[in-house]
Amino acid sequence: MTKSFNIVLAGVGGQGTLLAGKLFGLIAAKMGLDVKVSEVHGMAQRGGSVITYVRIGERVYSPVIEPGAADFILAFEELEGMRWAHLLRRGGTLLINMRRTMPMPVAMGQAEYPDNIIESILALSEGGTSVYALDAQKLAEEAGSVKAVNFVMTGAMSHFIDIDKALFYEAINDLFSGKKAALAEMNQRAFDLGSAIIEAK
Amino acid sequence: MRDLKEILLGNEAIARGAYEAGVKVVSSYPGTPSTEITQAIASYDRVYCEWASNEKVGLEVAIGASLAGARAMSCMKHVGMNVAADPLFTVSYTGVSGGLVVVVADDPGMHSSQNEQDSRNYARAAKMPMLEPSDSQECLEFTKKAFEISEKYDTPVMIRLSTRISHSRTLVSTNEPLDQKLIPYEKNMQKNVMMPAMAVKRHIVVEERQRRIAADVSNDSLEGLISIEQGSNELGIITSGIAWQYVKEALPEASVLKLGMIWPLPIEKIKKFAAGVKRLVVIEELDPVIETELRAAGINCEGKDLFTLQGEYTPSMIREALSDNKNPASAFDKSALPLAPGRPPVMCAGCPHKGLFMALSRLKAVVTGDIGCYTLGALNPTNAMDVCVCMGASIGMAHGIDKATDSEMTEKTVAVIGDSTFLHTGINGLINSVYNGSRSTVIILDNSITGMTGHQQNPATGRNIRLDPAPAVDLEALCRSVGVKSVYTVDPADTDASRKVIAQAMKEQHVTVVIARRPCALIPTGRGTPDMVVSLDRDKCTRCGACLRIMCPALTKGEDGYPQIDPVTCNGCDLCVRVCPFDALISGQATREEEAKS
Questions:
Q1: Angle at the Cα of B216 from the Cα atoms of B214 and B219, rounded to 5 degrees
Q2: How many domains does chain B have?
C-alpha cells in the first residue's frame, strides 16, 4: 500500500501555515508522490482564520480535505484547533499549540473565548484518535524565534508520520536556500525541539 | 526536458507556461486570486512585465503588443474583467497578430471578493475561446496551448481559473522556453480599425471562427482539450476545472467527460457521450453555463436542479447528490464541541488605516467605501463604512449623495479610497465631482502600496514591478490639477489632528481631498520591524486601557487587566508605545539598542 497523508494546518493569518504547507509539498516531491497544497491568500490572511490543506498520495484529486478525511491536524492556536477538529478522521492525530489569540469579537466583548477547549476535545476523543497539546511557542522561542512555531509543530507531528526525518531536514534546507543558513539552522532546531517534546511524553 | 518536478501554485504555473510559450509582454492589475501570475512573470528576466494602472489599460497594452507581433498576456480577477470588458469585446473582432491570452481568475465562495460572478459568461458574450485547467500542470500546458490557438485561429484566448486552482500547489514538469520570433507588422485597417463598415465584416469572421473551433474540438483536430473516461453507463458527468477533481474524488465509477475548453462547446462530441449514458449530469460551480448550452442543443441533462449556484463545491456534496457511497466519518462531532467564535480578518498590527477609521467613527461620518484592506473599516470596532461596491466607486457615490440630498448627510459624507484604487479608477470620479460642482470630501488613504493583494507597487510608490525606481505620481499635485481647491495631507497615526482636518474639509462647499499618508506597517518603509517586539513595564503600567483602544490584534487585555503583547503578531510599529501616557510600553528598537550596548 502506498503512503497517503491528509494534513490540515490551521492557524491565524500570519502564523506561518503557508510556509509549513510548502515544506510538505517539497517533502512529497522528494518522495516521488503526488501532492496538492491548497492555500488561503487575500483578505482572510489579515489576522483571520486561515487553513492550509496538504494532500499527499499516489494520485491526489481534490486539493481540499473533507470533514473526517484528515490524518493530521496541526493547530497553531487553540480556537483554530477546535474550529477545524471535525476535519479529523477517526484514529487521526490532532496536535494543538497551547496558545490563545483573541479574535476581535472576543476582544470587543461580543463573544466568549471557550475556556476549556483542550479538555473538551480530549473528552470527545475516542477510537484511537490522538490529541496532543504542547506549548510550541515556548519551544520556538527556545529555538531562536517565536515565528518558528510552524516548525515546532511540524517536528512534533514528524513523530507520528511515516516520513523519514532526513527528508524534513532536507526540505527545511531547501526552503531557506539562498537565504541565511542561520534561518535553516534555527528552524531545524525548532523542528528538533518539537520532535523531542513528543518523545518525552 | 527536465524530469525534476516543481511544486507550483496554479498561478505560478500559468506564468511558467507563458514563459515557455515565449510571451514577450505581460501587463496586469493585481487582484486576488490572480495576482501571483504576474508577480511570478517578473522572475523571468526575458519577459517584459508591468503593473498596469487598471485592468482595462493592462489588456490594451497586451493588445498593442500582440498587434506589434509579440505574444502578450493580461491577467486579472473576475471583477477586473468587468473593467477590461470594453477592449475585450472588440479585440475579439480584430483578432491578433502575436498570440494574445487573457487570464481571468474567479473566486467562488468569495474568499477575497465583493461578488461571485462567473467569468465564463464573458467568453460566451465576447465570442472567444476559453480554456479551463484543473491543476497546475494543466495551467502550464493550457497556457502554451492558448497561445497556439490564438495564433492559429486569429483570436484572443481566455483562460479561466478559480481560487482553488490559482492557490493550490501541485507538481509540474517544466520545459525550456520557445525562442518566439516577432511576427512582422503589416498594416491592415480592414482587420484592426473597428469602424462600422469594417466591424460588420469582422463580426461574420468571429461567428465563423466560433463554429470552426467547436467543430475542430469535436473532430479531434484540436487536441488535448477534451478527455473522456468511460466508466459505468448508468451515470455520465460533464465537468471541467476544479469540479473535475471533486468528481474524480466522489464518483470513481462514473463515466466522465472533462472539458478543457469550456467555450465554444464541442456539442457534437458531447451528444455522442450523452447517448452512451443513462443519466447525464453537468457539474459546474457557479452559473449553469455548460448546462444551459446543452439544454439549448436538445441534450437532456441535470445540473443546477441538483447543485447550488453559490460557493465552492466539495466531493461530499457530489457524493450526497449522486452516490450511495458514504462521506468520511469525523473523529469529532462539531455540535458536541463548544461554539467557536468567528475570527474575521482585521487591520494588521500597526496598520495606518486604524487611526483614520477611529477618526471617522468619532465624526459619525457617512462613508462611501472602496476596495482594499481599508474595507475592513466596515467591521468592528469602527463600523465606519456605509457602502462598498467596486473599485473607484467611493468618489462617484459620495458625489451622488451630495446631489441627492441637502440633509446633514451631505456634510457628513466622505469617500475613502486607497492610493492604488484611486489611481485605478478614482481619478475619473474625482474629475467628475469637480466638474459637476460637488461638495463631497474624498480621503485618499495613501499607504504607499497595493496592500490587500500582497504588496504590489503602483504608480504612486516610486517603484515598478521589479522594484526598480519609477516616476511617482504626486497625488496632491494631481488633485489640484483637476481643479480640487482644498487638498490637505494628514498623518493618520495622529488621530486627533486627522479628525480636525477632516471635520474642516467636510464643511467646505467644494470638493476637498484629504490625503492620509503613512506607509503600510508590513512594508520596509512602514517602520514596522517584525523582530522588534514591544514589551511592557508592569511597574509603570496603570492598566488605563489607552493602548487597547488602538485595536491592535497583537494587544489584548490579560486576565489581570494588564495588556498582553503577542510577540508573534506584533510588528514593532510602536503605535501603542506612542499612545501610552505612562511610558509603560517599551519599543523593541530600544530593547535592541540596550542589548547591543551590553
A1: 110
A2: 4
What's the mean pLDDT when you consider all of chain B? 94
Q: What is the mean pLDDT of residues A163-192?
A: 91
- For residue B381, say if its preceding peptide bond is cis, omega within 30 degrees of 0: yes
B498 in any annotated domain: yes
Q: What are phi and psi of B218, to 5 degrees?
A: -60, -40
How far, CA to CA in Å, does A73 sit from each of A3, A41, B27, B118, B460? Answer: 17, 20, 40, 33, 43
B552 → chain A, closest CA residue = A104
Contact B166, B113 (CB under 8 A): no
Does residue B279 share a domain with residue B213? no
CA distance A44 to chain B (A): 5
Q: Is B112 on the interface with A (CB under 8 A)?
A: yes
Going edge to edge, which strands form the sheet with B232-239?
B226-229, B254-259, B232-239, B279-283
Cβ pair B245:A108 closer than 8 A: no
Domains of chain A: 5-100+115-200 (3.40.920.10)
Question: Is A124 in the B-facing interface, judged by CB distances under 8 Å?
Answer: yes
Report chain B residues whose CB lies below 8 A from the CB of A45: 345
Based on the domain organization, do B134 and B200 belong to the same domain?
yes
- Which whole number is the average pLDDT over B451-460? 93
B315 lies in the same domain as B372:
no
Residues B120 and B254 in one domain: no
pLDDT higher than threshold 80 for residue A66: yes
Task: Answer with the one of B492, B508, B524 that is the final residue of a domain.
Answer: B524
Which value does ipTM take for this structure?
0.94
Q: Residues of A with CB below 8 A from B7's CB? A: 22, 25-26, 28-29, 35, 37
Range of the domain at B187: 5-218
CB B419 within 8 A of CB B370: no
**Residue pLDDT, tens place only, B179-209:** 989 999 999 999 999 999 999 999 999 999 9
pLDDT tens digits for range B401-428: 999 999 999 999 999 999 999 999 999 9
Contacts of A137 in chain B (CB under 8 A): 568
Question: In this predicted model, what pLDDT tens digit does every residue of B295-308 receive, in sequence order?
Answer: 999 999 999 999 99
For residue A79, which residues of chain B lie inside 8 Å, CB to CB? 340-341, 343
Q: Which of residues 18-37 of B touch A (CB under 8 A)?
A: 32-33, 35-36
Identify whether residues B214 and B235 lie together within a single domain: no
pLDDT (0 to 100) of residue B591: 64
Give residue for cell 481619478.
B427
3-state per-residue secondary structure call for B132-157: CCCCHHHHHHHHHHHHHHHHHCCCCE
Among residues B158, B193, B218, which one ends one of the domains?
B218
Predicted pLDDT of residue B158: 98
Of B111, B327, B343, the CB nearest to A12: B343
**Separation CA B504–CA B408 (nearest Å):** 15
Read off the pLDDT of each residue in B445-469 and give the average, rounded to a whole number.
94
Same domain, B188 and B234: no
Instruction: Specify if B341 maps to a domain.
Output: no
Chain B interface includes A147 (CB < 8 A): yes
Identify whether residues B360 and B464 lie together within a single domain: yes
Do B387 and B368 form a contact (C-beta atoms < 8 A)? yes
Report B:541-560 residues touching A (Cβ under 8 A).
548, 551, 553, 556-557
CA of A16 vs chain B CAs: smallest distance (Å): 10
Give me the amino acid identity at B286.
L
Smallest Cα–Cα separation from B576: which of B493, B490, B491, B492? Answer: B493
Which of B111, B327, B340 is closest, CB to CB, to A83?
Answer: B340
Is residue B48 located within the same domain as residue B134? Answer: yes
Put simply, whether B158 touches A (Cβ < 8 Å) is no
Question: What does the pLDDT look like over B29-84, one tens digit per residue?
Answer: 999 999 999 999 999 999 999 999 999 999 999 999 999 999 999 999 999 999 99
To the nearest whole Å, the CA of A94 is away from the closest chain B CA by: 10
Q: Which residue of A has its CA nearest to B450?
A: A42
